Amino acid sequence: MGFETSLTNAAGLIGRITRQDRQRYTVITGLGTLRATLTTGQRFSRGKVLTPIVGDWVTLLEPSTSDGLHPIKSILPRRSQLSRRAAGDANQEQVLVANPDIVFVVSGLDQNFNVNRIERFLAVAWSCGLPAVLILSKADLCNDLDDRLIRVQSIVHGTPIYPVNMHDPKTLTGVLSHLSSGLCAALMGSSGVGKSTLLNQLLGSEHMATQPVRAFDDKGRHTTTHRELCLLPNDQGLVIDTPGMREAQIWFQEAPFQKRYGELFLTRDQCRFSDCRHLDDPGCAVRDDAMADPERRDLWQQYRRLMALKNTQ
Length: 313
Ligand SMILES: Nc1nc2c(ncn2[C@@H]2O[C@H](COP(=O)(O)OP(=O)(O)OP(=O)(O)O)[C@@H](O)[C@H]2O)c(=O)[nH]1
Ligand SMILES: [Mg+2]
Ligand SMILES: [Zn+2]
What we know:
This protein has helices at residues 3-6, 40-44, 115-126, 145-156, 173-176, 195-203, 254-260, 285-291, 294-312, and strands at 13-21, 24-29, 32-37, 57-60, 70-75, 81-85, 93-98, 102-108, 132-137, 161-163, 184-188, 228-231, 238-241.
């Protein structure tokens, strides 16, 4: 059965959203790249039904005769999603990207280097149960690399770290080893850290706009304003570029968190109190056990920091 006939199938035509501009979507399908939009029902029930976003697999209906856009009939179940806590006071989830396999957290080794911020960005991914890779850009501008690497080492616990110069492809081979055919990486980080520069380098073109950072504080200018999924050449995988984030607000999810920090809790039965939170509680066996081992101590201290953040944000 050809793709042409599948347009009129009950299931609709399947495709993946590569770009969203308000209610207009770009969708890659077996028929090529198509323009799509929400149905009237989806448009007026916003917030109540799932809204399609970049990375979603969707089915499309035949194009409307009025505007030529394909209404999005359905969103296929998501395998994963990268979410953060929405900005503002409301305790709400904001889904940034659908169906990523891995998150590339990008942070600069320039004046903006900040271990706490890196930890929060990584925790956004961990809390979604997604593996993360830490890409430290602007290694070419950094003259105390070893010192900075030691400082991030204490927060990563198993997350690979790659100091790179985005303009030098030789330094990007470690990053590329995390991509392969069909695998999708979502870029995440502050503005100006080089997310779009990395994507352009992998694409071998200037597809994404980039801009120099401000000279006096190395802060970015919020150049990228939309999310976009790009296919790398030679079937090397897929990368989603995202706008720089002002704050890494974590959407705390219990199960992935318990999984990441699970190895800390093996001695939980020996804590003095049955409702021990394994933080600063008196007689906590989990804490005492962690303090005896440098690696586990770093992990417990991170758990404690993130729990404190969870309780205050
Ligand atoms: N020297 C050097 N410059 C870099 C490196 N990575 C990025 N840059 C520069 O940093 C500036 C910002 O890069 P962008 O790719 O626009 O940053 P971004 O993360 O996409 O920023 P937003 O789109 O605002 O989120 C550009 O001038 C890049 O050339 C690097 O590894 N070394
Ligand atoms: Mg950008
Ligand atoms: Zn305890």
